[in-house]
Design goal:
This protein is α/β, with parallel strands linked by helices and about 250 residues long. It has 3 domains: about 60 residues, Rossmann fold (3-Layer(aba) Sandwich); about 130 residues, Ribonuclease E inhibitor RraA/RraA-like (Glucose Oxidase, domain 1, 3-Layer(bba) Sandwich); about 45 residues, no CATH class. It is built from 7 helices and 12 strands. Strands 4, 5, 6, 7, 8, 11 and 12 form a 7-stranded mixed beta sheet that branches. The chain has a 3-stranded parallel beta sheet with strand order 2-1-3, with helices on both faces. α3 links the parallel β4 and β5.
Length: about 250
């Protein structure tokens, strides 16, 4: 009798575990899937489950997904003294929970870096998943050296107080022309950043796997030499064939 195959999915965010589980169940019918939150829970389950044949730990790479922690900056209050304020960037970084993505409204200012290597290094140590801003950073080589994923408009030598000062966090902001609310979800990769309003997350988790399946099928058809008209987007005939092959 064959040993049943089981795969473990471990990630702190339930919505990512759910979405990835849907994809695995579709790709590997008959395989048992277990989901847990946290690395320690994953290790405990692996130690007590000899039948576990595979594990996916931390689903945030190569792209990143995380909960938005918002911050905003103003240029009219820029002074060196603002660095030691109770509402400084330093205080905000110490309040960032592990796994969040910090989204910073810099009003599109590109001649003053909002963060440098030291602040980014501290964010990395705290387990922050990434930084997204419509501004720029300074100490670019040092920031890259921290390995903190950063999405910004570039680099600038002057510090933030040359044009901006920090005024608060965990409040609605505008970043890059998009309204961002605390606890919205971001998905970021080499192509850029996409914000998902918290109210739409469950819907996308339910519908996203089907879109991935459909596009994977289309790609296989292209690899076979199929032409694009009627395939992408699908016409009625192609849609019917896809549904039949999908089962």
């Amino acid at each position: 009798m064959a040993t049943p195959v089981e795969i473990l999915i471990a990630d702190d965010h339930a919505l990512f575990r759910k979405g990835f589980g849907i994809l695995l169940r579709d790709a590997l019918p008959g395989v048992g899937i277990k989901e847990v939150a946290g690395f320690d829970a994953a290790l405990d389950l692996l130690a007590s489950s000899p039948q576990m044949t595979g594990a996916f730990l931390d689903l945030m790479m190569p792209g990143e997904d995380g909960i938005a922690l918002t911050r905003s900056l103003r240029e009219d209050l820029a002074t060196p003294e603002s660095w030691s304020s109770p509402t400084s960037t330093r205080a905000a970084i110490e309040a960032m929970p592990a796994g969040c993505i910090a989204v910073v409204d810099a009003m599109g200012v590109t001649d003053a870096g909002i963060f440098g290597d030291i602040l980014c290094a501290r964010m990395k140590q705290r387990g922050v998943a990434g930084l997204v801003t419509d501004g720029v950073v300074r100490d670019v080589a040092g920031v890259l050296g921290t390995t903190l994923p950063v999405w910004c408009q570039g680099g600038a030598a002057p510090p933030s107080v040359a044009g901006l000062t920090f005024v608060g966090w965990q409040q609605p902001i505008a970043c890059g022309g998009v309204a961002v609310f605390p606890d919205d979800v971001l998905v970021v990769d080499d192509d850029g950043a996409v914000l998902i309003p918290a109210a739409l997350v469950d819907t996308l988790v339910e519908q996203g796997p089907e879109q991935e399946r459909m596009e994977a099928w289309i790609m296989r058809e292209v690899d076979k030499g199929a032409s694009l008209p009627g395939l992408y987007p699908m016409n009625a005939e192609t849609k019917a064939r896809y549904e039949k092959e999908k089962g």
